[in-house]
Design brief:
8 helices, Sufe protein. Chain: A, 6 strands, globular, single chain, 3-stranded antiparallel β-sheet, 2 domains
């Protein structure tokens, strides 16, 4: 009996030793960390795809009027242009600068040409994808900024006009060739030379500029143009209801609204545009020459 009890105790000790010496249960492997969702691409601007255009309301004191052209694809800004047309039709400001004809560096002590500063402004805009700028963006009252390296010109015109372009909505597709077609008439016997320039975006005429320049210098050695003279041209004094530049504006509005200048003429005049009492036959000829 004692042997049996002894045998039982030995077996019990052996078993307890096996248990004691057996490896501890391996802890469960921690659940794999869920993968972080891929970063969502930046949302595009909330605008309809298309080409947008806007210009300043008036020609500035230097004779230039800025305009902005924006292109939106897949909800994002993919291209922008910042240019300017002159009161007296000529090459647009951006191309003049590229060609070296706008001497801002040579004559204005600028650090770089205007087109380079325009490009830098556009790069900033495309990178930030917004017409809105931070509250402290402008460093002066006339719209300069320190936020864009190398840009010393005021840039407020670009951002304000870009915002205006988006508010206008996309430009419908038209049949003309994009660009700045212009035509210049022959000097007249009364000392004026008529001219016209159009701005075409997405095949649509978005702006028209009708003017006339004097063929001889004035007493100050300068060349007058009818738009700059405004009331000094004196049509109201001669009995007209509107000055020449005001009537020219009505012709321009007609062109943009109708996308042509196909109007009936009688002795050079027309009744098709209310308020216009000046000769428009040469304007019609120049329009047709510009778009041909």
């Amino acid at each position: 009996m004692k042997k049996i009890l002894l045998f039982v105790l030995v077996v019990a000790l052996v078993l307890s030793g096996v248990v004691a010496c057996s490896p501890a249960e391996e802890p469960e492997e921690p659940a794999e960390e869920p993968e972080e969702p891929a970063e969502e691409p930046a949302e595009g601007v909330d605008y309809e795809d298309g080409v947008y255009y806007a210009e300043e309301d008036e020609f500035g004191g230097s004779g230039w009027k800025y305009h902005v052209i924006l292109t939106v694809e897949d909800g994002k800004f993919v291209d922008a242009q910042w240019k300017g047309t002159h009161r007296v039709p000529q090459t647009n400001k951006y191309d003049q600068s590229v060609n070296g004809d706008y001497g801002m560096v040579e004559y204005g002590d600028a650090t770089s040409p205007w087109y380079e500063q325009a490009d830098a402004t556009i790069d900033y805009f495309l990178e930030n994808q917004s017409v809105e700028v931070p509250e402290d963006f402008y460093s002066s009252e006339d719209g300069h900024t320190d936020a864009i390296a190398g840009v010393t010109v005021h840039v407020v015109e670009f951002f304000e006009t870009a915002e205006k372009a988006l508010a206008n909505g996309p430009v419908p597709e038209g049949d003309y060739t994009d660009g700045y077609p212009m035509a210049v008439g022959e000097p007249s016997d009364n000392g004026w030379q008529s001219m016209i320039q159009l701005t075409v975006v997405n095949g649509t005429i978005v702006s028209a500029n009708v003017n006339a320049v004097a063929t001889e210098e004035n007493d100050d050695g300068e060349i007058d143009d009818k738009k700059a003279l405004k009331e000094e041209y004196g049509m109201k004094e001669a009995g007209s209801e509107l000055e020449w530049y005001e009537q020219a504006a009505l012709v321009e509005e007609y062109i943009v609204e109708n996308q042509d200048l196909d109007i009936p003429l009688e002795d050079g005049y027309t009744d098709a545009i209310a308020g216009v009492s000046i000769h428009v036959d040469e304007m019609v000829e120049l329009f047709n020459e510009a778009v041909k």
